[in-house]
């Protein structure tokens, strides 16, 4: 038990150090930063959505600077091809004077991958990320090649520019652990941003974690136990997103076409474990699971025609079902 307590304390300390370094550059966005780091430590990938200029790319670049890992940026455009992402075989001259095929790795062969404006690429190119994100490998010319570990994809997308964009298909969205919404800063935060970005001194960061330590932290997350009733609570939340389910709430039956997948349950539980560690506990609570629900479910709930026509937001459905499911399983939670 003492070893577990010490492990949780070291986890919390490393998390705070990493978050603190990012805070030297990024102003505000505390929930987004914590969500990104939760995905990183839970072995998931994150989708950042927000209008241009809010610092989504800067956040990812700053995270890469704080980690002693290989960083790659892929700027998605309509003419980007799958080979531009995963790599291809090229013909080169051998030392003997002959010619041979040699694999030239693409930018996907890194540890921290920024997929910038992912919805600007065609579905064919978007699909190049599917195998990489799920299997941590890519197949080129019939040969499977493993990606370096740890492997973490952060994708950004712009929700307001529709011309020249290709919405991510459901199968691709489901592979993202969290979808985080980057909000516009308030007046005080804007003033700090201007001070940091228009003055002579440019904020810098130090490297606080390396690959082996990050893998150790991920292993610590997996070791956190979860009680049967907490796991059942997470599964009940998932079932409540499916219309026609015995646990479905009124908003689900009225506005939802398809509910969340089992990957969503995995996200709830793993994110709950990270939340417990950050609170200094070695067990997951109902509050930990509920806290992760909006980010884990908002991109996995597909609205039907009525929901789209009335402008219903998935977050409203999630808030409703959390209140109703909580009423059946325990005291009301503040989410």
Description:
With 335 residues, this protein is of the alpha/beta class. The protein has helices spanning 2-23, 30-41, 56-66, 82-86, 123-126, 128-135, 170-173, 187-198, 211-223, 228-239, 250-255, 262-278, 286-297, 305-309, 314-329, and strands spanning 46-49, 67-68, 71-75, 87-93, 99-105, 112-116, 137-140, 143-146, 152-157, 178-181, 209-210, 256-258, 302-303. It folds into 2 domains: 2-199 and 206-212, Rossmann fold, CATH 3.40.50; 225-329, Helicase, Ruva Protein, domain 3 (Orthogonal Bundle). The strands form 5 sheets. It has a 5-stranded parallel sheet with strand order 3-6-9-1-10. Strands 2-11 form a two-stranded parallel ribbon. A hairpin with a 2-residue loop joins strand 7 (137-140) and strand 8 (143-146). Helix 10 packs parallel to helix 13 (286-297). The longest helix is centred in the first third of the chain and has 22 residues, at 2-23. The chain starts with a helix and ends in a 6-residue tail after the last helix.
Architecture of the largest domain, CATH level 2? 3-Layer(aba) Sandwich
Q: Please, what is the CATH homologous superfamily of the largest domain?
A: P-loop containing nucleotide triphosphate hydrolases
Structural class, by secondary structure, is alpha/beta
**The CATH C-level class name of the largest domain:** Alpha Beta
Helix fraction, binned, reads 40-55%
Average pLDDT reading: 85
Largest sheet: 5 strands, parallel
Number of strands: 13
CATH topology term of the largest domain: Rossmann fold
End-to-end Cα distance: 30 Å
* Spatial order of strands in the largest sheet: 3-6-9-1-10
What global shape is seen? globular
Low-confidence residue ranges: 329-335
Rg from C-alpha positions? 21 Å
- As for the number of domains, it is 2
């Amino acid at each position: 038990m003492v070893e577990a307590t010490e492990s949780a304390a070291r986890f919390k300390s490393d998390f705070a150090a990493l978050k603190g370094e990012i805070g030297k550059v990024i102003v505000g966005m505390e929930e987004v930063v914590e969500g990104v780091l939760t995905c990183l430590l839970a072995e998931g990938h994150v989708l950042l959505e927000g209008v241009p200029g809010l610092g989504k790319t800067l956040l990812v670049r700053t995270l890469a600077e704080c980690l002693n890992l290989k960083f790659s940026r892929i700027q998605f455009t309509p003419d980007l091809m799958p080979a531009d992402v995963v790599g291809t075989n090229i013909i080169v001259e051998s030392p003997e004077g002959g010619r041979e095929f040699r694999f030239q790795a693409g930018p996907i062969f890194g540890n921290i991958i920024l997929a910038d404006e992912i919805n600007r690429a065609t579905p064919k190119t978007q699909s190049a990320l599917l195998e990489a994100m799920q299997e941590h490998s890519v197949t080129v010319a019939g040969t499977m090649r493993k990606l370096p570990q740890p492997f973490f994809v952060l994708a950004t997308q712009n929700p307001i520019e529709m011309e020249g964009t290709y919405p991510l298909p459901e199968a691709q969205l489901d592979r993202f652990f969290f979808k985080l919404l980057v909000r516009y800063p308030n007046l005080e935060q804007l003033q700090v941003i201007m001070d940091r970005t228009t003055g002579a001194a440019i904020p810098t960061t130090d490297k606080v974690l390396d690959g082996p330590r990050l893998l150790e932290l991920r292993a610590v997350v997996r070791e956190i136990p979860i009680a049967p009733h907490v796991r059942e609570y997470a599964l009940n939340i998932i079932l409540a997103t499916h219309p026609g389910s015995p646990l479905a709430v009124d908003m689900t039956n009225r506005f939802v076409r398809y509910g969340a997948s089992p990957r969503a349950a995995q996200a709830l539980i793993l994110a709950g474990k990270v939340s417990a560690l950050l609170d200094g506990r070695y067990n997951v609570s109902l509050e930990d699971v509920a806290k992760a629900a909006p980010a884990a479910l908002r991109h996995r709930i597909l609205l039907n025609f009525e929901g789209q026509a009335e402008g219903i937001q998935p977050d409203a459905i999630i808030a409703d079902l959390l209140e109703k499911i909580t009423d059946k399983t325990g005291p009301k939670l503040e989410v």
